[in-house]
Amino acid sequence: MKSPLLQFTENGIFCEQANVYLDPWKNVDKALITHGHADHSRWGNKSYISHFDNIPIMKHRLGDINVSGVNYNESFTINNVKFSFHPAGHIPGSSQIRVEHKGEVWVFTGDYKLQHDGISVPFEPIQSHSFITECTFGLPAFKWRPQEEVFTDINEWWQQNKAVGKTSVLFGYSLGKAQRIIKHLDTSIGKIYTHAAVENLNEVLREQIALPETIRITKETDKKEIAGNIIIAPPSAHGTVWLRKFAPFVTATASGWMAFRGARRRRAIDKGFVLSDHCDWQELLTAIKATGCEKVIATHGYADIFSRYLNTLGYDARTEATQYEGENLDAKEESEVNE
C-alpha cells in the first residue's frame, strides 16, 4: 500500500520521499518551519528551512542555528518533491507549506487566520488534494468580530482607565499578538510601555513592520511615569511581583478564549477582549473550501468535532494527534517573564 505523502510520526509530520519534517516536535536532521511560536519552531534540529521573515524570529528564540530562507511562492525541490511556502496570516513570517510529488499536492497550514491583522502577510488559499488544518477554535460558538471593533473597545477601555488615574495592563503573547495590539493602539491617549519579552521581539520585528513607539520597562522605570498609560505584557506576567509594583492598574487579556463565559473570571482578569490569531469556525470552513481539497486532516483544537462536521459536508476528514498547542501559553514565554 502506498504511503501518504505526509505521515504523522512520533517525531512530527514526515515527508518520507524527501526525508524532511514539517514543524517537528522531536529533533530531526532537516526541518521545514511554518512560524516562530515555540510549539512549531523547536531547538535541536540539524538544519532548518523557513520564510526569510521568520529567520530573525527563530534566531532570537533558538540562538545560533543552521537555517536557510525562502520567499513566499518560491519553489524548491528535495529528492523530486517540490516545496513552497505561502502566507498563513497567523503572525509575521508565518507560512503554509505546499508539498507536491507526482501530481499529488498537500498543504500543511501550521497555524493560520483569515482576518488581516495589519502586521502579517494575509492568508493565501492554495489549491490542494489534502489539507492539514489546525482547529484551535473549531466550534460554531467561536465567531470573531471585525478587529476594528475590538480595537475601538480596547482604546476606549484604556481611555476610561486613564480618566480615573489607573494604568492599563493588557496581556498578549509576546510574538504576534503583542505587536498586533501595539500596531492598533491610539497613541493620542498616552504612552505604550512593554515587558522585556515583548520589547525584545518588537526590536526584531521592527525590521519588517512599522510599529508605534514603545518604551521598555526596566528596573529603573519609575512607576509614576507609567500611571495612566498602557503596559503590554505576556500572559505569564499576570500575578507576578514584576507587575504588582505598577498598582493601581486594571488588567485585560486579548485572546480567542475570552469568547468563553467565565474565562476572564478563571484567569482573574478584569476585562477580556476576544482577539485571536487563529481562525474561527466559519473562517476554517471558508479556508478549506477555497483549497478545493478532498481530504482534510484536523489537528490541534476541537479536531474530533470539526472533522465529524466536515464529513457531513462530503469531505474525507480525519484527525491526527500532534504536539502543537494552538492558542495556549507559549512555554518559551514562561522563561522570558523575568527578563
From TrEMBL:
GO MF, one example: RNA endonuclease activity
Gene3D superfamilies, per the entry: Ribonuclease Z/Hydroxyacylglutathione hydrolase-like (3.60.15.10)
Source organism of this protein record: Pustulibacterium marinum
Protein's UniProt name: Putative mRNA 3-end processing factor
Highest rank taxon of the organism: Bacteria
Matching InterPro entries: MBL, RibonucZ/Hydroxyglut_hydro, Xnuc_lig_assoc
